[in-house]
Structure formats: C-alpha cells, structure tokens
Amino acid sequence: MRGNAEIGKRMTGRWPAKRLFDLLLTIPGIVLIAPLLIPIALLIKSRLGRPVLFRQIRPGQHGRPFVMAKFRTMTDQRDESGRLLPDAQRLTGLGSYLRASSLDELPALWCVLKGDMSLVGPRPLLMKYLDRYTPAQSRRNEMKPGITGLAQVNGRNAIGWEEKFRLDVWYVDHWSVWLDIKILWLTVRKVLKREGISATGQATMPEFLGSEFNLQD
Q1: pTM value?
Q2: 91-102, pLDDT tens digit by residue?
Q3: Cα–Cα distance between 166 and 186 in angstroms, integer?
Q4: Which of 16, 113, 114, 144 is most buried, most CB within 10 Å of its CB?
Q5: Cα distances (angstroms) measured from residue 12 to each of 69, 136, 179, 180
Q6: Is the bond preceding residue 59 a cis peptide, omega within 30 degrees?
C-alpha cells in the first residue's frame, strides 16, 4: 500500500509541469495554425457537407468522459439496414490526406487548451474499451490522453493493440518533459514520412475486442 501511495504522490506532483508544458506550446500553436483551419473547414464542407467536425465522447484521465473533436474524414454512408458502412468505404480521398498529414487532429488542440487532453499521452480510444482492458492496460488512463504518444512514434497503427498498450503504460511510468519533447520531434518526422497510418489490410485500426488474458477468463 505504501508503494502505491508513493507512486500516486510522485505522479500527481508532475501534472503541473506537464500542464505548463502543454500551454506553452499549445497557445502559440493555435495562433500559428489559425489560418489553416478555415480553408480546411471549407474544403471539408464542400466535399463532405456538414458537420465539418467529428465529435465523439472519449475517456479522459481516469476514464472521465470528454468530447473529442477532429476534422471529419469520412462520409455517413449506410447500408440498407441503416448501419454505417466499413471505414474503408466511408474514408474519402480528402480524409485519407488529412489523416496521413495529421491535419485532422488540429481541432484537438482546443481539447488540450481546455485541459481535457495533453499534447503527448496515450491516445483517447473508445468508451466501450474501458471494460476490456486488463488491470495493467487500464493504467494508460492514469494520464490525460494525448494528440500523439509513444505508441504513435513506434509504429502508430501498424503495431497491434497489445504493443500499443505496453508502450502507453511505459510512458505513464517514465514521463518527463524531455520525453515529451522527443516524442513531439519524432511525431513530426513520422508525419512527414507518413509511416504507420493504417493497420495492415485496414483503412483504420481494427476494433479492440480485449486481450487474450481477458478473453480466457
């Protein structure tokens, strides 16, 4: 118990430094990208219609829900039963470009400014995944979710869920400002090279159904 308390105290003590780091980069970042937002929004509106933004409730730190916003990259096409078509069929050429260049993530800077997200951290996944994590995997939610993260610069969507979660938890345990700086730099390199955008044979990452450990229990 003492060990857990000491870890919790140490982790709580580093949040102010991480928040300050986020604000120092996010505030000028929003000012710099502001001229890009309107042209991208107008282009999406002309190609996909409204809404321009994709909003979805995602789990934040400790699983608390928040509304995440991204530029919309898919249509709302549905089959005869009214179900959404697979991602590969709804993802447009414009959407593919926005994803490859990570321009679709720009609205998430507002989530960082509000304090719901961080520039760097485990990616915010789906609410329904919370009950599918093992106890070890659930530790990825001890930190605020990030626009980019350690998993994104080590394969992005080209690596499996288990490896993603292992990297997320490692990041939680080893966070430092210098680590965030390194990840941001590597993110820029990855975006320029457009590596790991999709899982093999998938337009996006396949659904996480739970680890083998959970499925066996």
Answers
A1: 0.84
A2: 888 888 888 888
A3: 19
A4: 144
A5: 27, 19, 17, 17
A6: no
